[in-house]
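Aim 2 progress update. The chain analyzed this quarter is reproduced below.
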Amino acid sequence: MTTATMPTMYDNREWVAQGGSLLLGLVLALAISKLAIQHEPMPVEAPIQITLSEPPLELPKPPPRVEPPKPIEQPKPQEHVQQKVAAEPIRQPIVTPIAAKPSPAPEANPVSVPDVPVSPVAKTLPKVEETPVVQRNAAAEGRFAQDVRTQIERKKIYPDSARDLGMSGVVEVVYVLDRTGKLMKADIASSSGFPTLDQAALRAVRAASFAAFPADAWVGENQKEFRTRLVFSVNY
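Predicted structure tokens:
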């Protein structure tokens, strides 16, 4: 190595040394600042406290105070009026007796009876007439029975065959009539002994016409039984 190059080497070393010290200072400064940042205490946030407040209790309101009614003051009587009334005497009116006149007798007025209104139902209903009570008349019954026998005698026919053969006899027939005079039934009650005469008697009863019962005959009976004797004789 030459002497010419020696100063240059020393210059480079000095520069390197200065740069290293500068770099070291920077590293130390950075390290110190980092340590300061790490050791700086972190701020601690205060915990949030939530308090639930209860609703205020409503106390019942006291009842309104009722004031007692004030006594009504009675008006004081006026003493001077009472004294004046008490001082003046009460005057009684003088009553003059009056002779009482006799009152005339009231005239008798005819009393008018109001018409009773008739209901429409009563107007529509037919009036029921009361049936008068009819007494039984025996004489009317006898006359009717005699008329019945007369009607049968008029219808009686003596058969020619029986007359020619000399048949004769008495036939008693029994028959029933209703109140209108209608023949209900007829039968032989007592035979003559000849069927020809018996049948002639029945034909006479059935051919006769009868009137209705009288109102006073056999009251309360709807039918009546009769008996009639028919005589068949040549000399009759």
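DSSP finds six helices and three strands in the chain. The two ends are 226 Å apart (CA to CA). These observations will guide the mutagenesis experiments scheduled for the next reporting period.
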